[in-house]
Write a structure and sequence with these properties.
It contains 9 helices and 9 strands. By secondary structure, it is an alpha+beta fold. A hairpin with a 2-residue loop joins strand 2 and strand 3. Helix 1 packs across helix 3 and helix 5 packs across helix 7.
Length: 214
C-alpha cells in the first residue's frame, strides 16, 4: 500500500511539473505577464507560478506581476521599463519621464533621481515594480515621445520638486527657451503647461529680444 501511495504521489508531482512547464511553453523571454493572463494556461496558476519562480524561470516584480527575463552573456536582463509599465497599466498610452533628463537641457540641473515618472490616464500613486520606483501621475494630455520643448515645460511644471536653486534654474530656462523652435515651444506650453508655467513663458524674453540685448 505504501508503495502504491508513493507511486501515486510521484505521479502527481511529475504531472504537476509537466503542467508547469506547459505554462512555460507559452512564455516569451523579455515579456512581462499579469497573473490573470497566465491563468488561461494553467489549472493551478498560483502553484505553477511559484514553481517557475523557484526554478528561476520567472521573476516576481510585484503582486500579480511577473517577468520572463532574457538570458544574456552578462546574466538575466531585467524587463524594459516600457514593457513593465504597459503590462502594469494594461494600456499603451503613457509617457516615461525621468527627472534626470532635465540635466541634458543645459539649465543647471545636476541632481540624480531614483524614480521614473509615468504620465498616464489610469493610475495615480507611487509603486515599486521589479525593484524600480515609478511615480504614476494621471495627466489628461502628454506627447507620445519626449521632446526638448516638452521637457523644458515639464521642468517648470515640476520646479518645486527639484533640489536646485529655483531662481537660477528659471533664468537659465529663459535662455534655453530662446534657443528652441519657437512654434514647438509655444505649442508645448499651450498643451502641457500649468497656469504658472504658461505665465512664466509668456513673460520670458523672446529670441529677438535676447539678441538685441546682446
Amino acid at each position: 500500500m505504501k508503495n502504491v501511495a508513493c507511486q501515486h504521489f510521484l505521479l502527481y508531482i511529475l504531472t504537476d511539473m509537466t503542467k508547469a512547464h506547459e505554462l512555460k511553453s507559452h512564455l516569451r523571454p523579455g515579456q512581462v505577464y499579469r497573473r490573470q493572463d497566465l491563468a488561461a494556461w494553467s489549472n493551478a496558476v498560483d502553484r505553477h507560478l511559484k514553481q517557475l519562480v523557484n526554478e528561476g524561470t520567472l521573476t516576481k516584480l510585484a503582486g500579480g506581476l511577473y517577468s520572463y527575463p532574457k538570458k544574456t552573456v552578462f546574466g538575466k536582463a531585467p524587463a524594459k521599463d516600457e514593457r513593465l509599465v504597459e503590462t502594469f497599466l494594461k494600456d499603451r498610452r503613457f509617457l516615461l519621464v525621468s527627472p534626470n533628463a532635465y540635466n541634458n537641457l543645459g539649465v543647471g540641473t545636476t541632481q540624480l533621481y531614483d524614480k521614473t515618472v509615468v504620465y498616464n490616464r489610469k493610475r495615480h500613486g507611487d509603486f515599486q515594480l521589479g525593484g524600480r520606483k515609478f511615480a504614476f501621475r494621471v495627466k489628461a494630455d502628454f506627447p507620445k515621445t519626449l521632446t526638448k520643448e516638452f521637457l523644458l515645460v515639464d521642468l517648470v511644471n515640476n520646479l518645486d520638486q527639484l533640489a536646485e536653486a529655483k531662481n537660477e534654474v528659471l533664468e537659465r530656462v529663459k535662455k534655453r527657451a530662446a534657443s528652441l523652435d519657437a512654434r514647438r515651444l509655444q505649442r508645448a506650453v499651450r498643451d502641457y503647461g500649468g497656469v504658472k508655467t504658461r505665465k512664466f513663458f509668456e513673460r520670458a524674453p523672446k529670441p529677438q529680444e535676447l539678441n538685441h540685448a546682446a
